[in-house]
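Reviewers of the previous submission asked for a worked example of the structure-prediction workflow described in the proposal, so we include one complete record here. The input consisted solely of the amino acid sequence. No template or homolog information was supplied to the procedure at any stage.
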Amino acid sequence: MRKVIFGALLAITFVACKTNNASLGEVVKVEGENFVAKNVQSYDQLLTKLNKDGKVDDIVVEGKVTGVCQSKGCWMTLISSTNTDTPPIFVKFKDYAFFMPLDLAGGKVVMKGSAFKEVTSVDELKHYAEDEGKSKEEIAKITQPKEELKFMASGVQILKYK
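From that input alone, the workflow returned the following C-alpha cells.
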C-alpha cells in the first residue's frame, strides 16, 4: 500500500512540475522546494511591496533572469518580465542547497521566498563581478558599497526557455 501511495504522490509531483502556471509557461525543472505557484506576483508588484515595507516574506514571484553566476549557478539576477526598466534583484538560494543552469539568462522563473533590501560590501560586489565574468577593469571600478534588492529563494520553478 505504501508503494502505491508513494507512486501516486510521485506521479502527481511529476505532472505538477510539467504543467503550466496559468499564462506563465511550462515548468521544465524545479530547484529547491517544490511549491504550488499560487497567488503569483509580478516582479513589479514585488517592487511596490518592497519599497513600501522594506521586506516581504513568503511570496511567490515571476520574473526574467538577466544573469547567472558563471562559476556554478549559485546566484542569479532578475527583472520584470514586462518592464525592463526595473532595477534588478539579486537572488540567492536558501542554505546554498541548489543552483541554476548557467545558460538561464533570458529565461523566466517563478520563485518562492523572501525579498529585502541590503547593503552589499565592496568585496562582495567584486566577488560577484568575478563570478559574472566581468573584466579586471570593470571590477576595479567597484569602490563603493551598494544598497541592493535581494531575494532568498527556497524554491525556483524554471519555465521553458531556449
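The two ends are 41 Å apart (CA to CA). We consider this example representative of the routine output the project will generate in years two and three.
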